[in-house]
Every structure is written in C-alpha cells, then in structure tokens.
Amino acid sequence: MIKEGAKAPDFDLAGSDGKRHSLKEFSGKPLVVYFYPKDDTPGCTIEANDFTKRYLDIKKLGADVVGISKDDYDSHCRFRDKYGLKILLLSDPESKVIKEYDAFRDSGIFKGGTKRKTFVLDKNGIVIKDFGDVNAPGHADAVVEFLKGLK
What we know:
alpha+beta; Glutaredoxin; seven-stranded mixed sheet; two-stranded antiparallel sheet
C-alpha cells in the first residue's frame, strides 16, 4: 500500500502520444497521477474532461497530470480524440502499476478493475497527497486547489 511521504513506484507505460513514459521524466515538478476504470464511460469521461478543462491551470501551477487505466493505446487515442482531451493517458493493460499504487479493485462487483484514485507527487516523486477513492465530478477542481496550496 502506498502512503503519503513514500517514494512513488516508478512506471514505464505507453502513452496516448505514441511514446513510452516513466516517472523520472516528470521529476523536477509536481505530478498528478490519476487512475480510472475505463475509457469513454460516464464517470471517467467527466473526470478526463474536467482535468482537460483545468489542464492550463495545472500547468501554470508548475505541475503535470497523467491518467492511467488498463485500456490500450487505441482505446486511449479514440477517447482522447472523441473529447479533445489534452491530458496524457497511459496504458497499463496488465495492471502492474495500478496494483503498485493500490488502485486495483480485487473485490466486489467490479473485481479485477481499477479504482478511481488520485495521487499528487512532489518534484522528487514523493507522494504528498493521496485523494483515495474519489468521485469524478469536481475532483479536478479539488486537485487544483491542493496544488495552489503548494505555492
């Protein structure tokens, strides 16, 4: 289980931009890492659209944001293009990173899926905020407010 104050697990995942991305490429600035269950579903669409609407605010605060789900590259690209998403979506089809960040749902009706969970990492990759299981509406606003408090 990942906790605030701990070093965030590294990752090496394919992105919706056709490149591979690792945690170390984001070092030197805060990073919002949000996990979501599935591309183009109601809650996930709300969350992705809200992070896109707040993307420039997040960048102005010196941070970046990535979304991670089990969906593959093609699914991420369709999702990105359908809604004009500006955020980078990363694919974790085997749920390796999802499990390392304790965002894997191993019980209940959604067993084997991904929890909606968000972490904010500092410029050194240390977890400074665990938002836990979140509700999509308004979540991006809460993340921006947290980032404002870092300034």
